[in-house]
């Protein structure tokens, strides 16, 4: 084998980048309404007026980041006294880092070691002296550590300004996010809300089709592969990132097998890989005790409930009490200090928001009123993943 051989290998891909999560397509299909609503909210800038703050909410992979980037691109094509500054809060996750980044982006002032108020003043001077309108996009706003302080600082900025203004566009995929905000910040940030619903299978097919035409060689991606990838992603969470990943992995598998075409069979194989990737990614970023609750749930799912069966409809669903008991045992066995059962319920809410578990309120008859939880992924796999991450040294 030499480089020439490798380079001469045929691939189903024409431009694999088009399938990567960072690729920004020219058209964001099925988001016309949401994009229009955001654009209308931002439009006052073109008339030298301060826009309302906007909050975008929707599950992972529903096109929030793609839509806002699309809007920024269009915004930058027209002259205005406004600037939209995009902040990825995963990278800039504190008030300090964010104020520093904004000051650096718009004024070029980017020294270390200054207090946050220096960056704040620099930014406000720039806004006021030029009678400018600054719109700050805080993508994944829920990961900011001192969120309330930041929102408070940025919304209060307008009281300090004689000219121009500062507006915010917050983006999150966490349902519980609003509870992190205190009342004042909540009403400030949520002036205009735009919800991004999950995609259905037809919409995902169209999103995939658009990428297939750029990403794959003509005619190599079978229709059956596109519909299966769309159907799987729609059934899971309506996540376009997941659908795209399925198709990209399917293409890689097709290349490995030198098959020249991508069929639904490759998507089926890809599904296993993608699922594992996604779950271990999600599990890896969980706080330790959420991992332990998830672990306890996987143990219960494997062993079954020691209490009376709840009936066929509730197969592999467990009551919070029994789950908490198992979690306590896990903590004891691994020498970790357990958290209260109230925390356990909060963790379950978070795990549900991430799509790792599902909870239902049991109807009457099953031990009064209680919550039942089910693991949404293979218990063996979850067990192994958590063991590898937290329980390694035990
Ligand atoms: N309507 C659409 N048309 C074309 N591509 C889309 C559309 N919606 C999403 N995508 C693509 O799917 C992937 C995920 O979308 P995006 O990053 O915008 O999701 P998100 O809502 O920001 O998710 P998260 O909450 O996880 O950040 C991206 O590659 C994006 O380009
Ligand atoms: Mg995003």
How would you explain this protein's 3D organization?
This protein folds into three domains: 32-196, Rossmann fold (3-Layer(aba) Sandwich); 200-284, Helicase, Ruva Protein, domain 3 (Orthogonal Bundle); 288-389, Winged helix-like DNA-binding domain superfamily/Winged helix DNA-binding domain (Arc Repressor Mutant, subunit A, Orthogonal Bundle). 51% of the residues lie in helices and 11% in strands. The protein contains 15 helices and eight strands. Strands 2-3-4-1-5 form a five-stranded parallel beta sheet, with helices on both faces. It has a three-stranded antiparallel beta sheet with strand order 6-8-7. Helix 6 (147-160) links the parallel strand 3 and strand 4 (165-172). Helix 8 (201-215) crosses helix 10 (240-256), helix 9 packs across helix 10 and helix 9 (223-236) packs parallel to helix 11 (264-284). The mean pLDDT is 91. Residues 64-65, 139 line the site of magnesium ion.
């Amino acid at each position: 084998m030499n480089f020439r051989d490798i380079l001469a290998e045929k691939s189903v891909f024409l431009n694999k980048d088009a399938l990567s999560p960072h690729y920004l397509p020219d058209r964001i299909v099925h988001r016309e309404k949401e994009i229009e609503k955001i654009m209308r909210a931002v439009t006052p800038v073109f008339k030298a007026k301060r826009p309302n703050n906007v909050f975008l909410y929707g599950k992972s992979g529903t096109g929030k980041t793609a839509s806002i980037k699309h809007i920024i691109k269009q915004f930058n094509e027209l002259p205005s006294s406004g600037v939209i500054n995009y902040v990825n809060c995963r990278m800039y996750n504190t008030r300090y880092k964010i104020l520093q980044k904004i000051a650096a982006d718009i004024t070029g002032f980017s020294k270390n070691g200054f207090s946050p108020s220096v960056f704040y003043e620099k930014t406000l001077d720039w806004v006021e002296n030029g009678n400018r309108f600054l719109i700050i996009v805080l993508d994944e706003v829920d990961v900011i550590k001192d969120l309330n302080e930041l929102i408070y600082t940025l919304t209060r900025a307008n009281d300090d300004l004689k000219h121009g203004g500062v507006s915010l566009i917050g983006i999150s995929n966490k349902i519980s996010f609003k509870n992190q905000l205190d009342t004042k910040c909540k009403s400030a940030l949520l002036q205009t809300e735009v919800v991004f619903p999950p995609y259905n299978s037809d919409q995902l097919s169209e999103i995939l089709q658009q990428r297939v035409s750029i990403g794959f060689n003509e005619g190599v991606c079978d229709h059956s592969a596109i519909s299966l990838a769309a159907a799987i992603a729609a059934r899971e969470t309506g996540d376009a990132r997941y659908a795209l990943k399925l198709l990209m992995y399917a293409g890689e598998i097709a290349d490995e097998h030198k098959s020249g075409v991508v069929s639904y069979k490759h998507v089926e194989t890809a599904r296993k890989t993608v699922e594992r990737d996604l779950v271990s990614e999600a599990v890896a970023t969980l706080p330790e005790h959420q991992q332990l609750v998830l672990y306890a749930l996987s143990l219960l799912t494997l062993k079954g409930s020691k209490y009376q069966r709840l009936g066929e409809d509730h197969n592999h669903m467990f009551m919070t009490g029994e789950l908490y008991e198992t979690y306590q045992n896990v903590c004891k066995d691994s020498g970790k200090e357990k958290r209260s059962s109230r925390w356990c319920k909060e963790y379950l809410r978070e795990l549900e928001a991430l799509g790792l578990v599902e909870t239902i309120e049991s109807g009457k008859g099953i031990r009064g009123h209680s919550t039942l939880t089910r693991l949404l992924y293979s218990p063996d796999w979850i067990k192994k993943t958590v063991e590898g991450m937290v329980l390694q040294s035990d």
